[in-house]
Design brief:
mainly alpha; 2% strand; Terpene synthase; Isoprenoid_synthase_dom_sf
Length: 377
Amino acid sequence: MPHKALGNTTAVTLEKIRKEYAFLSRTTTFSLQELFNHGSFRLDEYCQEFSPHPQSDELRKTAKAFGEQYGVWLDNAKHHITCALFLYPTAEPHRMLNMMKNLTIDFYLNDVMGRDVFHQLSREQQQEAKQIIRRMGKYDPQLRIPPSAPDMEKANIEVLRNFRDTSPAEWFKKFHRLYNYHLAITHRDNNAAAMGRIQTVDEYIDLRCHLSGMHHIVLWVEYGDGLFLDWNWLRQAGIDQELERLHWVTAAFGALSNDLFSFEKEVVQNGADSNLLMVIALNEPELSLFQVIYHAAALVRELLVEYVQLLDTVRNRCAQLQGTFPEQAALMEIHLAGLERGVQASWMWQVYTQRYKHPESIWEETLLATPEKVRTA
């Protein structure tokens, strides 16, 4: 499809979605929890024993000081960096702080030049953003700081060095490459017109896991407690493939559930179409927003179903190996508990944070004020 025609197509779809949203925002409230629940599984019950890191206040202050020192602190950052405090409540404080510093940089870049605002930047601002990301996303195993590097890039390298010096080389190499790829593809115009085509839903889902950074965030489950997996043993035990899939599903749940939470911010307010709901709408333009919501929620619900099944499969396999490999099985139980906390935190933080709150939200979980609406599951 020619660039102009594609731009017209996406603009028409966006306008349709915005008009239908305006109507729904006055009349209807959806419960994301009810949309995601399945069978006897309920997110509120699954997350009821969850609590954030016990040293949250102190860590927030230190992360803020770091952000201000390097000029990467935004007023709303206090709402963003709390996600690490939810994701890794058992993390060692120095490891938690390093993850929060990384998120401070990442959220700053997202809000200043991320995928849902990049198209709003001037041509000069876009060029500058591309240069910054090109330098920051360049893979440099030595993590050298160029003499003329601005403070933001110095901060990024400082944090990466801290990760390197507090983790095994194999783990850090994997994290470093995932993080750099996340930087490279997230801070650009990912709208369909700029990409030159409409992605399929499956293509978008694969990309979205990298855009969200969830793949390396799942890696932080190991980093937070300083307990790193032995993949040679996992392969020998025949657990590696199921665990890799469990990691992917955990990442995908966090990424795609966030597309519903951030739909109003990204699509309605910023006019971006790099969002699951818009990708579905572009692929199936005959669907109403109401139908698009249920389609997107069903995809997230299917991920939760698979997550529960995979978690049980891997946990049962580890239990069978406990007698022969007690140390490895014990480490795996800690790791699986960390993945559980990650799924719980993906839900709890998105409900808790002010980042997605809106006075006319169609989501029950992010509605600031409660007008008279018809509640829809």
